[in-house]
Design goal:
With about 110 residues, this protein is an all-alpha fold. The chain has a domain at about 15-80. It is built from four helices and no strands. Helix 1 (about 15-35) packs parallel to helix 3. The longest helix has 20 residues, at about 15-35. It starts with 14 loop residues before the first helix and ends with a helix. The mean pLDDT is about 80.
């Protein structure tokens, strides 16, 4: 009895595009860390940004690049984590910990 369709996959069609998008995401996060001293410690999300989270979810999937763009425009600028220089959350090590932890947890 065959339980899994060999043709069914969640793998992306273009791994090189996924790689470029992931590199762009890391670059975006590092850009935020580099310019942390030039930004306010915290800023409220404007009503237009809050309203985006009340919209209907898309019926179709979105590209990884589109999701990254949404994150950069609507979430990243209004993050609530402490991002001040010298804080534990503002260090480069702290930025890498969640990804490393997630990668290890999947295998344990």
């Amino acid at each position: 009895m065959k339980l899994i369709d060999d043709d069914a996959t969640l793998d992306p069609e273009d791994w090189s595009e996924v790689r470029r998008t992931f590199h762009a995401a890391v670059d975006s996060c590092l850009d935020q860390m580099i310019c942390v001293r030039q930004r306010p410690v915290w800023q409220p999300a404007p009503p237009a940004v809050k309203a985006r989270f009340c919209e209907r979810l898309p019926a179709e999937g979105e590209s990884l690049g589109d999701l990254l763009e949404f994150f950069e425009e609507n979430m990243q600028p209004y993050a609530t984590a402490t991002r001040t220089p010298g804080s534990s959350d503002g260090s480069t090590g702290a930025a890498a910990r969640p990804e490393c932890s997630a990668r290890c947890s999947r295998r344990l």
